[in-house]
Amino acid sequence: MVTLTDVLTLIESNDRVCPQPQKWYELYRFLPNKRQSHPAVPLILGGWWHSTPAHKQERLREHVEWAAEHGALDSVFRFLSSLREDDGVHLSEAPSGRVSPESYEE
Question: Within a domain: residue 42?
């Protein structure tokens, strides 16, 4: 049985911030019992450029905690474990937030 600590350790290893936007959306789709306001949507699309790495990490943590509270932790862990390292954003490459897309070089 996977624990919340196992998943949090995984998502925070190797200076990870969060999955790339498309992968984060896929993860969000795993979350059960979504309502209009909970859990909050991933910080992708317009939220991507205006949020800091810390905000992204916190939102991802909220998604993992939601999965734990609603019986989906195992499937979320399997999904996150299946991601390649380049499917994630790392602290060294994360946009710092509050910038325009034009100022971020790929």
Answer: yes
Find the largest Cα–Cα distance for the chain.
Answer: 44
pLDDT range class, residue 97, cuts 50, 70, 90: low
* Digit-coded pLDDT (tens) for 60-72: 999 999 999 999 9
Domains held by the chain: number: 1
Q: Is 78 a domain residue?
A: yes
The verdict on pTM exceeding 0.70 is yes
For 9-43, give the secondary structure using H, E and C.
HHHHHHHEEEECHHHHHHHHHHCCCCCCCCCCCCC
Residue span of the structural domain in which 45 resides:
4-98
